[in-house]
Structures are given as C-alpha cells and as structure tokens.
Amino acid sequence: METIARILIIDDEHAIRKLLEIALESSHYNVLMAATVGEGKTMIATQQPDLVLLDLGLPDGDGQDLLVRIREWYFKPVIVLSARSEESEIILALDHGANDYLTKPFRSGELLARIRSALRLNDAESTVDPKRSYGNLLIDLSLRTVKRDGEEVKLTSTEYALLSLFIKNEGKVLTHQFILREVWGPAYIGHAEYPRVFVAQLRKKLGNQPNQPSLIRTESGIGYRFTG
After folding, report:
1. How far apart are CA 197 and CA 195, in angstroms?
2. Please, are residues 144 and 165 in contact by the beta-carbon 8 Å criterion?
3. Which CATH architecture has domain 157-226?
4. Which of 183, 139, 137, 196 is nearest to 157 (CA)?
5. CA-to-CA dists, residue 168 to 50, 84, 85, 171, 174, angstroms
6. Does the fold of domain 157-226 match that of domain 6-121?
7. Which of 26, 96, 143, 210 has the smallest number of Cβ neighbours within 10 A?
8. CA–CA distance, 27 with 119 (Å, rounded to integer)
9. How far is CA 151 from the centre of its chain?
10. 105-120 in b/e burial notation, b at 16+ Cβ within 10 A?
11. How do the domains of the chain map onto residue ranges?
C-alpha cells in the first residue's frame, strides 16, 4: 500500500492555511499546520514531514532565515509560497535551499503539480535526526547546541557550520575543496589552511572520546572524514 505523504503548511494567514488544507486533503495528502517560525521549526523536527510549504512573511521571523536553519538537517522538499515577487527574493530562497517558489496568488492545480514533481524527485534521501549523540557529546542541529558531559560547548558560527557539514556527511570523505566551498565559499578554494585551523579548533572543543580516536579523522592529502 502506497504511503500517504505528509505536508506541513507554515503560513500565518488562517484563510490561506484553510484553502491549502482543502486542496491537499482533496488530493489525499495528510496535512500538518504551523503559523510561526517557532511552530514550523518544531513541527519539522518532531514530525519530519515529506514536504514543507513555506510562507516567508511570518510574525516571529523571516521564512528565509528559517529555510537556512532547517537546511542544516532537513533535506526533504521545501516549496516557498510568498507574496514577494522580486527576482532577488526568489533567487535568495532557491540559494537557501528551496526546491521551488510560487508567488501568491497561485492556482491550486499548479501547486499540486509542483508538489507531485517535488515528491517524485525526492529520491528518499532521509532527514537527519536533529539530535545526535556521540559518546559524551550531544548535538542538536535544530537548536544549534553542542553539549559535552552536559555542559554547553561554545562554537563560533564558522565552527558550527563546519561541524554541521561533517554531520550531514557522516562517514564520507570530504575534500579540502568541498569544505572550503560549502563553509567559506568559492572564493576561498585553494586556502587549505582554513580547514586545518578550524578542524584543530573543533577537535579541541569537542574533545576526543574515551577509548576512541578523534571524531574528525584526517584523510592524508585529501581532506577529512567525520566518523561519528
């Protein structure tokens, strides 16, 4: 029996949530709803929906910022539904990880077609559990917190971005070039000293696990591997 997809609507306008709910349920989707950035982030972390419909103008924050945060640990499709029609806003959302962008008002038939397309293209890449445990370390990607032996570890934004990249690619060898592009940007390709310095700082702050080598292993001449 085919699994029914669960779709989360994040929009502060009750009328729009209701219209979307009717359209989605008529197409046999299970519907979840949130009205704020905070509610949306919590719902994504706890319910792990198959697709998110995201408004940008939310009362407690900007949907663009929420998109950046959830893309650190949530990899299912996100379709932005927004009244913002400026090209720069659309490009920014796509660069932040949105799979698609529809401006309001939109036709429900077109939205449903884009949802079907996004779900088809999603090749079952699973969402990372935002809470990760490694020995005496507890990392919560949804809260952006790292604790060692119950005490919070203070990381800079760059250190956290690097750690998040390692966790999302656990077990994979990441080249120096890949790390530089993802964390610092294309302009820093070739500056291999950056990953070396920041990996050393991360290792020091995270500490080696008892009876285990470092979580971040050096692949000589290539890059690093996060072993978990």
Report:
1. 6
2. no
3. Orthogonal Bundle (1.10)
4. 183
5. 18, 31, 32, 9, 11
6. no
7. 210
8. 13
9. 25
10. eeeeeebeebbeebee
11. 6-121, 157-226
In the β-sheet with 223-226, what is the strand arrangement from edge to edge? 173-175, 223-226, 216-219
Cα–Cα dist 161/92, whole Å: 19
DSSP secondary structure letter of residue 34: E
Q: Note whether 72 and 29 are within 8 A (CB).
A: no
The predicted-structure confidence for 27-66, as pLDDT tens digits, reads as follows 999 999 999 999 999 999 999 999 999 999 999 999 999 9
Q: What is the topology classification, in CATH, of domain 6-121? A: Rossmann fold (3.40.50)
Contacts of 118 (CB under 8 A, 6+ apart): 51, 77, 79, 99, 100
